[in-house]
Design a protein that fits this description.
With about 300 residues, the chain is α/β, with parallel strands linked by helices. The protein contains 14 helices and 12 strands.
């Protein structure tokens, strides 16, 4: 580990590179990153960072978003096969069909989507800013894609709006059921339940707090509670335990492990820097159009 880190630090300096890592990445990857956070935080970093090279430790749509925001930078995805099943549930063609059916609606796409979907949408959002973005739009009717659970979470907080929701969901978060909540609450009475809004409504409805990974971390930091049930991907436990070692954090369900997020390891990061693996190429026409929905998100948020 020490040798890998030494070589990565050398390559970062030689290439004027920066490493961004999502909260769901392996602990060894988070340890070598310059910035760790949720999609919203990393999007803002990607848009303003001065480095010439961005190594994005996450999944493809995240690295793609970084390239959209920084087209003149070299953006590397350490593991080319790191995708997102949720993002794969919606296409630009699906968006066009929904627009035809709901001509008066604005299209809000979750950042967990392809560049093609972002290009076909009016505005992008993350789980951290979704309610704020949707609430700021003048349209009464909104098409929200692709995550139906996050869409339901937003709709419940904006009853004045009418929502048309996509049918996608995160297969990792969707594994959690109310039964899991009931069993874990019985095992840890008095524990606070903090969940991601990609969980189903029956789970988020029972939570003490629902929000993005960064918001979950902040909620735990500000709470006087000592025991927490965490309803999001296991990677967030690294930051929670590091910042609050005196508190106890228990994963709500053992299935909260994203296979794609776990594909990247410290050797992947080294290979990306040493061998330029795997560069996200700029599709100028597509990315210019996709940038409009992301830039609008950054303006509104």
């Amino acid at each position: 580990m020490t040798e890998w880190r030494r070589e990565i630090d050398r390559l970062k300096k030689d290439r004027n590179a920066v490493i961004l890592a999502h909260n769901y990445q392996l602990e060894e990857v988070q340890a070598v990153a310059d910035y760790v956070g949720d999609s919203f935080y990393l999007s803002k970093i990607a848009a303003k960072v001065a480095a010439e090279v961005i190594v994005f430790c996450g999944v493809r749509f995240m690295a793609e978003t970084a390239k959209i925001l920084s087209p003149d930078k070299t953006v590397l995805l350490p593991e080319v096969a790191a995708g997102c099943p949720l993002a794969d549930t919606i296409t630009a063609q699906d968006i066009e069909r929904l627009k035809q059916q709901h001509a008066d609606a604005a299209v809000v796409c979750y950042i967990n989507s392809s560049a093609q979907v972002k290009a076909a949408s009016d505005v992008c959002c993350t789980s951290a800013n979704a309610v704020k973005i949707a609430g700021s739009l003048p349209n009464k009717k909104l098409i929200f894609v692709p995550d139906k659970n996050l869409g339901d979470y937003i709709a419940k907080r904006l009853p004045e709006k009418e929502f048309v929701l996509g049918e996608g969901c995160c297969p990792t978060h969707a594994q959690v059921t109310p039964d899991h909540v009931e069993k874990m609450r019985a095992r840890y009475p008095g524990a606070q339940l903090l969940v991601h809004p990609e969980c189903c409504p029956e789970v988020t409805g029972q939570a003490d707090f629902a929000g993005s990974t960064s918001a979950i971390i902040h909620s735990a930091e500000s709470s006087a509670a000592q025991v927490f049930l965490i309803g999001t991907e296991i990677g967030v436990l690294f930051a929670l335990k590091a910042s609050q070692p005196h508190k106890q954090f228990i994963l709500l369900h053992e299935g909260l492990v994203c296979p794609d997020m776990k594909k990247t390891n410290i050797q992947s990061v080294y290979n990306a820097l040493a061998n330029n693996c795997h560069e996200i190429m700029n599709d100028k026409a597509l990315f210019d159009k996709a940038r409009q929905s992301i830039s609008r998100m950054l303006e509104l948020a």
